């Protein structure tokens, strides 16, 4: 395994969101390798869907990942991320279908029509979010742990990530907003790439939907990985800012630094470690 290539993937994943770099400070070396590699792997799968311009090309890339997961389970990993993951016994304890389910769901997403409304968008993204949540929950907490809250957090994190990268999404020919909001505010996908009253109004409507969904999810019970817990907190804050801001996209994209975030990250790390300790003694 090339350490420089492996570190490059971890860096790309970490730099995609500010709270990830903060969480990194509270993890031990082995935790960074295993949990970081898993998060970066999911990031790569999601990136293929987000950046897809031609469905056959994106499907071929995801098909390679499906084959890679099959090889990795059999001891033949080729990619730096899978090589790092499957050097750990925890990865080898996870059944092959749990590894391939997110890739299969990502392939299915490539051929879906643009969602008509927010409910349809959530329904379309749910199979991928559910599969990712099951994989992450197995890796972080072991067998037999319920992941319903994790599925919902993963779903809204994916949608929030997409809208945060709105300009890039439009550049790839995608709208992170459902079609009814474009119609309501007289927008095309191309027009969504430029700032204006219509885009700001549509984003206010959309981020309000996301905030309601994520707020309801935050009240659910269930174990969350450290990264998902921090993303939940970060996205709730960002969506709240967007709802009040004149320019919701700028508010959504603005970093939220400060001592308060350091303390929240420390508390989230301690909560996760306590949860793992309790599960191991159950």
**Could you tell me the radius of gyration in angstroms?**
19 Å
Q: Residue-averaged pLDDT, rounded? A: 92
Catalogue the unreliable spans. Answer: none
User: Which CATH top level class fits?
Assistant: Mainly Alpha
- N- and C-termini, Cα separation: 36 Å
Strand percentage, roughly? Answer: under 5%
Specify the helix fraction band: over 70%
Please identify which CATH superfamily we are dealing with: Farnesyl Diphosphate Synthase
Figure out the total of helices. 15
What is the approximate shape? Answer: globular
How many individual domains?
Answer: 1
CATH architecture: Orthogonal Bundle
Structural class: mainly alpha
Essential attributes:
282 residues, mainly alpha, Farnesyl Diphosphate Synthase, globular
Overview of this structure, please?
There is one protein chain. The chain is mainly alpha-helical and 282 residues long. The chain has a single domain, classed as Farnesyl Diphosphate Synthase (Orthogonal Bundle), CATH 1.10.600. Helix content is 74%, strand content 0%. The protein is built from 15 helices and no strands. The longest helix is centred in the middle third of the chain and has 24 residues, at 118-141. It is globular and about 55 Å long. The chain starts with a helix and ends with a helix. The model has no long low-confidence stretch (mean pLDDT 92).
